[in-house]
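Justification of resources, computational component.

The compute hours requested in this renewal are based largely on the per-chain cost of generating structure records like the one below. Each record pairs the submitted sequence with a full structure-token output. That output is archived, and it is also reused by downstream analysis tasks.
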Amino acid sequence: MKFFLLLLLILLFLLLKLYTKDFFLVNSKKNIYTLWMGKNKMSKNRFDALNSLKEKSGCNVVLITPKNINNYILKNHPLHKSFNYLSSIHKADYFRCYLMHHYGGGYSDLKKCTGDWSRHFERLYNNNNIYAIGLKGKTNFGIAFPQEYNKDQNQKLRDNHENFIGVGYFIYKKNTHLSNEWYNNLNKRLDYYYPLLKKYPAKYPRESSNGKICPNWEKKAKKIKNNKTSYPISWNRILGQINYPLQLKYIKHIKGGLPKPDNSNYLNGD
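The structure output for this chain reads:
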């Protein structure tokens, strides 16, 4: 009898380990995911931003890091084979798309939250015509122009700038036409870059091909010889350059209203 009681306790312990808080959060509708893909520690400013999301958003806030990312990778949908070669910033660009397509929910960069998100989840889930809700406004974010685009195509993006939502704060329904095209186009782009990424993988968290290894990291960049890189992917190549043209295509299904975050001093301490 004691043996069976001990066995039962062990089974209960294992079940508790399996059904962690993360598990329950993944299955809740009002999740805001935020990502820290670097091996470097989060700064105090980033922790403060995380806490502000927990305190003010009115939603479950899920921090995903290299330590727990495997909990969110679906068995039938592995990460792209290039993922481990990406810089931390591009890993976050990739994985926010992965989450929005496969899980849906909210995403926020680690910047201070200023208001409630909860009612916007309700707007999204109560309207079949809405695919995504975010922060609109020309003064809130810039547009990433695809490097393949000509002047006329770029102008169409400019003309609709005020109707787009930024790519750092949003809520998406999972598996919509919009999320599906975003995810598929992202994977196709990484297919193209895969041979180059294997040859020239990222070495630094904010690395991109735009001429500097450490954008906004002037002091750290000075310590790196020549501050140049062979890493092949530019800063917004796998996020904004894919997402904004798709927003134009599905503009009738995208709404604004999310509270504007406090972007002040968020890089201090990174």
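Residues 29-255 form one domain. The two ends are 56 Å apart (CA to CA).
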